[in-house]
User: Fold this.
Amino acid sequence: MSKKKDLGLNVELVDRLIIEPSTRFINSSSASGIVLFSSAILAMVIANSPWSDAYHAIWKYQFIIGFDEFVISKDLHHWINDGLMAVFFFVIGLELKREIIGGELSDIKSAVLPIGAAVGGMLFPALVYLAFNQGGVGSDGWGIPMATDIAFSLGVLYLLGDRVPVSLKVFLTALAIADDLGAVLVIAFFYSSDINFVSLGTGSVFLAVLWIANGIGVRNTMFYALVGIGGLWLAFLMSGVHATIAAVLAAFAIPAKAQVKESHFAEHMEYLVAKFKNATPNNVVTITKEQLDVLQDIRSYSKKAITPLQRLEDNMHPLVAFVIMPIFAFSNAGVTLADDFLSQLISPVALGIMFGLLLGKIIGVVGVSNLVIRFSPLRLPKGMNQFHLWGVGFLAAIGFTMSLFIAGLAFKQEHLLQESKLGILSASFIASVLGYILIKKGAKVEAQKGVNDTVNIP
Assistant:
């Protein structure tokens, strides 16, 4: 009896001290941003330590898949950027489709302001960058400061907790989602080269298969995984169009309609719950065969009530947030600071990225938003003020993951890549701090308004 009691206490202790805190951390909106930032810091520390050579060498190991003459040989760094990041873009695609169908981008009227801010926040950073690099060796990097890291920016925002109005979170989410769509289009049209039209045509056939399967009602996610990865992604990988685009296209082919309607689900669940209650118990720890069958019916029917799109997004988000993105950050953010570190930091590429993000994003996001507000009936969402808007502009200037990714596509010369990483990391850090401070200030202004309104009530 004592042993059982001790075992129960140990299980409860492990649950309270390890499992519950871990679950709360993973479910926290800021957790992914913290892990991402920590991975980048760790990469920088190792890249400037005695293990620097080993750090850089590990990403050059070659991995080969295939058989006979059909092989793909890439180093570890490329498998991460072309393979693992395809999963990241797949989830981005799922989010985009969900937002367009029934989310923040589904209502055109409420989406105009954040979409306009996103467009301005992509156009002006590119122009600022080109002002520093027009006609120079770094001119291909104009797409780098256009991107916003949605995980990092929302992570910083959620650090402020309840002081941030829901309207601001919605505004930044819609802006970041629209920005992601723009980044995908930029990669597709401007950072793909040497197109193999046979492979591209083959990929198009697999994409058509996915859309047809969606249309005729196929809901098996394993089917979409096999055709999407073994067909579409592989064909795009060999076509010259970046493989991450295949991931987004595959995501848009995932069914967004559940097999069971909400009303039918509620009615049938009431029937199953009643059936479980009426089942004769066996008065032991295990349940009866009849009860087990009912619970399996409940699980199966519940699964059918969730759209494949939402089920995949929900299941894959922790993998992307806590495994794939940290691995990407760790493999891409490690910049070894050379003796000429300062000269790299003031190079046209680094300055173009820093000013593109810190100045261009502000002009684009804040400037375009205020122009739309001034010349249209649209207004900032309720609860938002100019401090909030400026804070959002700086959070949108956190390029990080997406900017590092585009930098890897834009530059093959190591020195340009190093300069771009320095610019991205420096600007993202400054933008995080300024965005946090401004939104915190905006929260204080709104709180003071509430106090004044309360005092003025007769």
In short: The first helix runs from residue 2 to 27. The first strand starts at residue 62 and ends at 67. The domain at 34-187+309-456 is CATH 1.20.1530.10 (Na+/H+ antiporter like fold).
